[in-house]
Amino acid sequence: MEGDKAGSVNANIEKMLMPRMYKSLKRTYALFTDTPATSVTEDYEAVRLKLYSKVGSEYSSIKDGDINIPVRASSSRSSSSSSSSTLLLTDGSDRPIHTDYDGRPVLGSHDIPSQSGVPLTQHTATSSSISDQAYGDLLHSIPSKRTEREVKTSASIVEYRRAAGIDERFKAPGALSTISPGIVYTKPEWHAPWKLMRVISGHTGWVRCLSVDISNEWFVTGSRDATIKVWDLASGVLKVTLTGHISPVRGLAVSPRHPYLFSAGEDKKIKCWDLECNKVIRDYHGHLSAIYALSLHPTLDVLITGGRDSTARVWDIRTKQAIHVLAGHTNTVCSIESQAADPQVITGSHDTTVKLWDLAAGRCMTTLTNHKKSVRGLALHPREFSFASGAPDNIKQWKLPEGQFIKNLSGHNAIVNCLAVNEDNVLVSGADNGTMAFWDWKTGYQFQQLQSQVQPGSLDSEAAIFAMGFDRTGSRLITCEGDKTIKIWKEDENATEETHPVKDWRPS
């Protein structure tokens, strides 16, 4: 029953559509045919140009070789040879082909009238198959000498195949199976692996932040024990301990233009230390809750802090006044970066967003919502106009100033707390479980992953990396960890591309 019903429906559809289709064909035929009594013949010049273009573009690589044109079988409706003319080929042999009344080769399989002005009827029609002679003439009319550029291109393709190790037996059949290089992927730059150089102990609590002096001779660290310690970078010896906070110190910045050190802590206090006399000279009040991040503007006398009150505040370091309150985040602001060009302030928050701010206007320029987890780490590239953001879901690269997404760096499956990048395009991410991942900035290739070892007497769960940063040369990496130590890492000077080659890299 269902089959009969479907057949009936199809028959009705065909009955309705066929008359309309024939009517449309009739109108088209009447519009584009000069004389209804004659059939539509193919334009010889158009077909010649079409074949010339096709042969030149697709068969130029075999044009210098011998060409054998297969002879097609004649149509069963072919008439006697009296209606055919004879053309002389280049090799001197004669082959009869069909021509129209103007002497041009017929390139179709349709019927044509025997003479000009004779109506096309059953008795005056001349049937013709596709002329192989016409194809041969067109093929031989194409210049056989390839240009110097084409010869060089063909040679370069052969060299590419040989260098790529493409076996000849995998070529497609025929002489047209030339493989072009296609998309060229950038191979990761080789970077030497990193190894532990020194372990520094002295704090009695988690080490939460650090900053390196512009002279590259010393660095400072802040800890949960509410102290700030100044260390000699070359030897790791403690130089001085600064006390003044009453809660964990979460942010530090050494001024490159003044002998000042700025610190911020969970006690809602921001302090300016004079390093010539090692005492506090200014306090900045305004945050309503704990402060988790601090950044010093590189060219202006401006300080930016962010915390649990979901705001980032901009301070004039001379007058101690709050210039702007950058409001817009809906959760804790836990990471801040600043730069000389717009956007001059970048903030990351537990609300999973990254915001780019116009410092002059004090308003948000762009909000990046690609992350799905808290953005705990930010890092500006020292040479390129781009930055990276780290979260438990992914590490993402962005292009400034618009904040265009570049790519994901996937593989560090942990809660990423901090990021650092040097001028050699080495990006490092530190996580809550003590793992560090080393990435090539250009390609996003992870060339090394390390597990930090806790010092004796600490729990394995304290192997957390809370902050990290390179020194001014980019050859030393400093990490602040949960086992109350500071670790300094350096590149393995004995490593080479042969001993540590790039492994398991696949273009993405």
Q: Specify Rg, calculated over alpha carbons.
A: 39 Å
Number of distinct beta strands: 32
**Widest sheet: strand ordering:** 5-32-31-30
The total of helices stands at 4
Based on helices, strands and strand pairing, what is the structural class? alpha+beta
Termini separation: 55 Å
The average pLDDT score comes to 80
Biggest sheet character? 4 strands, antiparallel
Instruction: Tell me the quaternary state.
Output: single chain
In the predicted model, the low-confidence regions spanning at least 5 consecutive residues are 66-98, 145-154, 167-181
Helical coverage, percent range? 10-25%
Q: What spatial form do the alpha-carbon principal axes imply?
A: elongated
User: Beta fraction of the residues?
Assistant: 35-45%
Describe it for me?
It is built from 4 helices and 32 strands. The protein has 508 residues and is an alpha+beta fold. The strands form 9 sheets. A 4-stranded antiparallel beta sheet has the order 5-32-31-30, with no helix packed on it. β23 (386-390) and β24 (395-399) form a beta hairpin. The longest helix is centred in the first third of the chain and has 31 residues, at 2-32.
